[in-house]
Write a structure and sequence with these properties.
- This protein has helices spanning 48-55, 78-83, 101-106, 123-136, 154-167, 180-193, 206-212, 235-253; strands at residues 10-19, 22-32, 37-42, 63-68, 71-73, 86-89, 112-115, 118-121, 172-176, 198-202, 215-220, 223-229.
- With 254 residues, it is an alpha/beta fold.
- It has a six-stranded mixed β-sheet with strand order 6-9-10-3-11-12, with helices on both faces.
- Helix 5 packs parallel to helix 6 (180-193) and helix 6 (180-193) packs parallel to helix 7 (206-212).
- The longest helix is centred in the C-terminal third of the chain and has 19 residues, at 235-253.
- Bound molecules: adenosine-5'-triphosphate and magnesium ion.
Length: 254
């Protein structure tokens, strides 16, 4: 199946997010297909993280529709987005410091056992699965999944989220400014592990985005100003395009 005909894993149709009178994102339409890596670039304040927060359930759009596998969704919380197969990797959000690693790993998707009508958490099993996955992604500094997430570095937090994506067979992996060393290598690892995964990848460094992405979406001041295909532009041309899109949008919009 070609990516053009397959149902997008996630699609934004005319999505807007306002804060008071200000538009953080305005009328943005964007689709991520199975097996596709979409790069999202743009200046500071362009609206990239606002897009990410809407997709991952931290905020709701003011207008427009988000679809997962073709079905309109309204996420009231990050848990709901995760349950729908959207795994988001950022440096700070996504992980709860006070909770043990295994709890963070299974957040919203805990394993239970029923005993005489009472639901118990299957703690041992969850801790074991978490330990295995942390070892798999090379989180060697972690002694046990019973320690809290507060002990993890930024990159280690991202590794935890990536191992989660693999375990839960996510539909979409969102990487908002991942730690540089992690980005390209881990993205590839997850792509290999999960068939038909879509990836939305945000990075200021065009040297990272260009080799990783099949398609690159350029944002400026809340709107999508241009979409380029892999191979159409060099790193320098892409950097220029990001800067120029600013000039063009400013000329158009005043
Ligand atoms: N909670 C908020 N309240 C008011 N304005 C906000 C809020 N969050 C974001 N904005 C505004 O929305 C715009 C887009 O912000 P966003 O964080 O999406 O940009 P970004 O492209 O991720 O930038 P960066 O590259 O710096 O991370 C900015 O002008 C920002 O000030
Ligand atoms: Mg941002």
């Amino acid at each position: 199946m070609s990516t053009e005909t397959a149902t997008p894993v996630v699609e934004l149709a005319n999505v807007t997010r306002r804060y008071g009178k200000n538009y953080a994102v305005r009328d943005a339409s964007l689709a991520i297909h199975p097996g596709e890596v979409v790069g999202l670039v743009g200046d500071n304040g362009a609206g990239k993280s606002t897009i990410v927060k809407m997709i991952s359930g931290y905020i709701e759009p003011t207008a427009g529709t988000i679809k997962v596998q073709g079905k309109p969704v309204r996420f009231g919380s990050p848990r709901q987005a995760r349950a729908a197969g959207i795994e988001t990797v950022y440096q700070d959000l996504a992980i709860v410091d006070e909770m043990a690693l295994w709890r963070n790993f299974f957040l919203g998707q805990e394993l239970h056992r029923n005993l005489l009508g009472i639901r118990y958490l299957r703690v041992k099993e969850m801790a074991r699965i978490c330990d295995e996955h942390l070892a798999e992604v090379g989180l060697t500094s972690v002694e046990s999944s019973h320690q809290t997430a507060a002990t993890l570095s930024g990159g280690e937090r991202q590794s935890l989220a990536i191992s989660r994506a693999i375990h839960f067979d996510s539909q979409l992996l969102v990487l908002d400014e991942p730690v540089a060393a992690l980005s390209v290598r881990e993205t590839r690892r997850v792509l290999e592990a999960i068939e038909d995964l879509g990836v939305l990848y945000i990075d200021h460094n065009m040297d990272h985005v260009l080799p990783a992405a099949d398609r690159i979406v350029i944002m400026h001041r809340g709107t999508i100003s241009r979409v380029v295909q892999k191979g159409d532009l060099t790193v320098d041309e892409l950097s220029d395009a990001v800067a120029e899109s600013g000039t063009a949008a400013a000329d158009n919009g005043g």
